[in-house]
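ugh finaly. both done.
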Amino acid sequence: MFCINKGIGKLLVCATVLLTGCQDLLEPAIENNRQLDASAYLPSDSRFPFGILLNGYNRIPTNSWSFNDVATDDAVSNDQNNAYLKMATGQWTANNNPANQWTNCFAGIQYLNITLGEVDKVQWVTDPVANKLFSTRIKGEAYGLRALLMYHLLQTHAGKGVGGQMLGVPILTKVQTTSDNYNLPRASFEDCLKQIYQDLDSADIKLPLDYRDITLGQEAQIPAKYGKVTLEQYNRAFGVTFSGLFTGRIAKAVRAQTALLAASPAFNNGNAIKWTDAANAAAAVLNLSGGLSAIPSAAASGLTWYSNTTEIGNLKDGANPPEIIWRNNWGENRDLEQANFPPTLFGNGRINPTQNLVDAFPMLNGYPISNPLSGYNPADPYTNRDPRLRMFILVNGATAGVNNTAINTTANGTTNDALNRVETSTRTGYYLRKLLRQDVNLNPTSASNQRHYKPHIRYTEIALAYAEAANEAFGPTGTGANTYSAYDVIRAIRRRAGIGLTNNDPYLESAKASKETMRQLIRDERRLELCFEGFRFWDLRRWNLQLTEPAKGVSIQNGVYTILPAVQDRVFKTHMKYGPVPYSEILKYSALEQNEGWN
């Protein structure tokens, strides 16, 4: 389905290391323009195949922020050229798809298949035992990355064909050459799942749980699956030097992500076992870190992982803070702040949270603002609210930036932060706060950068996946084969946020009596905890929920709060719960079937 430069005979590999760790693995820097044949490189030249493998890493869709929230009820953008804004307002087509991952992921899979075909031909090190360990590790990485890219292909392009069958994408497990048949049909969704799980099993078998150095006297900690190897041989192939690369822990987390997708209403025909599988897959990840203890407490800065200045500053290459399972490293910059700080802080205010999202944050006592017991006052809407509201969203009167500048978003405000005042002003009455480091200075006279990183997978994501699946499989308080329930997870997450600390969260206590009420609460918590991280766009679709709720805002004038019911309409048709196969691919390959409703 995807041929690199029309075949591997002319393969251009420009691998830029976006991962942490491994900086000193390749000398000189990874930049290969080599022919892939037996005479092109020496068996001892490991740079070429490793550079190909790194292309798989570089194509991970979560390497950067998508902010596809702009195509949901959670956010709008003041940038009229924003691709997701255009998608949300009726311009989403099979040949204009900002969410498209077809070319990117199939290119990555081609590189990974090349790696799997070449890895055993390479002499990585002279020690034959260590050499075998290196080959084993790299094959494990390639299998894991191939599964991850296939997961993203399913998330983005799986759907019902015109005949009603749930289809995935073509399954490619070997290198495509110029002589191969590219006109391949889409495999069934189920067959794609089987391939992902098979690849993850292969990765898990070959990879250590984590990369770490085993010290002298602790040789018994070397996993038995690697046979009789010395401490030096093990550390050389699986030591802390390789932190940041794919691991067995990551393979388990990707399995949990995939299983949740497979169990979701849009992809599941009512098979309850899939919910059990998803719950158990998520539990397998959480149990590696103590079950519920895998959800870092507020004291451990589990909520503010993106702005924990000391923690981030002290992170070693490839190391993860308690909240993170896997991350990349953006290094020192101010890109997010430049895009999203309010105008008075020299930012462009691009991502504007909606009133819809603001209303989803409960009161401090745990009740939704629509509940009569909440104590919500629409004339004083930000008082006694869930603390996460002010952590994640910059509301009128809140402070931001290095000088704790008060931000005025009122309709009659006198600064450019005011509602709709200039091009970079908010369209909803709110600015983004989450993900941004307030110690970044954008003032041209004293600009400063700070260190950032982008998570691929967080423990909170996996915990919420467990809660969702466990509630469907076992009910709110059931545990199945595990030791904690959906209720237990949501209680831990809400208490970390500061909800229900003084009143034992009576709304949560009442919700545990009903699977349906708990389902809504779990979805609400997922919306809040993972906001602006690229989940809402996919969650609404896999849940078969309404996609056309207008984005709301607020106009504040003379202390009066007026809800703006339709800052921006959402124009989606029913079939758009599934993304399209690219139109260009449909034109080229007659065997490819388009998802129902897309032209």
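ok and the 2nd:
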Amino acid sequence: MPSHHLHSFSSAFTLVTLFSLSFPLSTHSSFDFNEATVDSIQEAFKNRSLTSVQLVRHYLSRINNLNPRLRAVIEVNPDALAQAVKADLERERYPYDRNRLHGIPILLKDNIGTADKLNTTAGSFALLGSVVSRDSGVVRRLRKVGAVILGKASMSEWAHFRSETAPNGWCARSGQGINPYAASASPCGSSSGPAIAAAANLATVTLGTETDGSIICPAAVNSVVGIKPTVGLTSRSMVIPVSPRQDTIGPICRTVRDAVYVLDAIAGYDVYDSKATKEAAKYIPKGGYRRFLNFDGLRGKRIGILREGFFNFSSNSVQAKIFEQHFSLMRKKGAILMDNLQIANTSVILDYNQSGEELAVVAEFKVALNNYLSQLTSSPVRSLADVISFNEKHKKEEKIKEYGQLVFLASESTDGINSIVRYAISNMAQLSSKGIEALMREKQLDAIVTPDATVSSILGIGGYPGISLPAGYDEIGVPFGICFGGLKGYEPRLIEIAYAFEQATKVRKPPSFKDNFQIVSDL
């Protein structure tokens, strides 16, 4: 087993320290790094006021400074500076227009495989030292366009699928992830690390995954933008799975524009995830998604407001008042809002047990994980049963005893995709067909709108896309989000709506770190 795969949580800081010995972490640049966007960085690259090396050094410094408190990053990439040097040399030698992500540092959720010196562990010590046989499909595309793989972000361990009692944002390798706006607030999961990192400016852009709410929810509560793509639009190959039927990979960024740049880079066919990506490839518009960044994108859009079962706060709350202001603004921008719409069998769909989602996903996980583990070049564990045994053996040092692994045990007890599971999957398909699909087609909707991640199960069981973006902050400053969802392939419409909404409202503000954060000034 290669020794370079044996980094623990503390190695994130060790590696930053090692970098600082060879490369001073000060950037020597007049560039304003605060809330830096892909476009502002590319402009700085072009006018030579910034290099990729300076940018990577800045983020390493910020990780070194903030991560001991936020626990958003599990490992930094020991090759990040080398990749930045390569990007700078390419730009110097061949100064033609490149992909917008060229030379841009990105953090990846720790279940996204990289065939390099980084671990891919889903936040668990059980997979520490495992070696993937190849880059994941999305990472291969990121490398192709010249993005810098900055490191791995923390997450709810095993995508919050090991235990029902473990808190959101907790994993054995990095501990409890912290919401940068309020330490007492949940960072949500399972893509907690990417969302925390994006919110706290620990990278330019980040990448997460979702089975049911794992992009939309952390994006909402950390005041960033998350895109959950149509299932299959982005490859899941060499990504630690939960349910291949529902899993999808998507960007978590500070702006809609940056998220769209990432989506454009990672969407497309992959031979290693051929069935799903071939089916979804028909939805990718010619020229990509960037052209749907339209300031006037709300005009003429038919948007359905789902109230009952989704807007679960009092009419006098800050959230309720802000949402009404948003709806008023959307109407002024030309949107046609249809209020108080209802999806058939909403209560059933939102009940993880009644819909059949729990039964199906628990069975799918065992099959999918065992298949993933079989593809690893080397690994301490080769099956879900091995993982369960590992956890039991090491429960004292990993606090596993406290949180248990009941979901793992339930999954291991299944016998695969049997007739009962197939019936549950069929039932979810019927709920989707007679629910969101029937409503959107009857009302000719371009999108539905809900707060936070309340709609995640509806989008999850049907493989539908959604975009979450900042909507406001409650009485104590905790962020909440607004989510636009649609049918398969509706990403162009959702991007137009989300971008126009973002540009009209300008809600997002960076965290102030006033909530008992022990923060020192940047190096």
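summary for the 2nd one i guess: Confidence is low (pLDDT under 50) at residues 1-27, 519-523.
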